[in-house]
TrEMBL record:
Protein's gene: rplU
Source superkingdom: Bacteria
Keyword Ribonucleoprotein: yes
Annotated organism of origin: Microbacterium oleivorans
Example of a GO MF term: rRNA binding
InterPro entries associated with the record: bL21-like, bL21-like_sf, Ribosomal_bL21, Ribosomal_bL21_CS
Protein name according to UniProt: Large ribosomal subunit protein bL21
Amino acid sequence: MVYAVVRAGGRQEKVQVGTIVVLDRQSAKVGDKIELPAVLFVDGDAVTTDADKLAKVKVTAEVVGEERGPKIIIQKFKNKTGYKKRQGHRQDLTRVKITGIK
């Protein structure tokens, strides 16, 4: 079993070939190929965490689509002052499919 843990937008994701992962917005367009940096690489029983060896590991992915996350409501309220504030946020996301780990 071959898999890797990649760094993607402040988080780490465990990926295998064929896995579809949702990441923070990438600058690539739909259909483009991107490369993700590996933090850990497992090839059968061999586990690689050495930075020099991980520099040679290539995790490639293809951008499948762009989407937006769920709406998050931010509310602030201060008692007895009449202060209240309501704000919404939706994160921009990119869906990618892992095409190769070498």
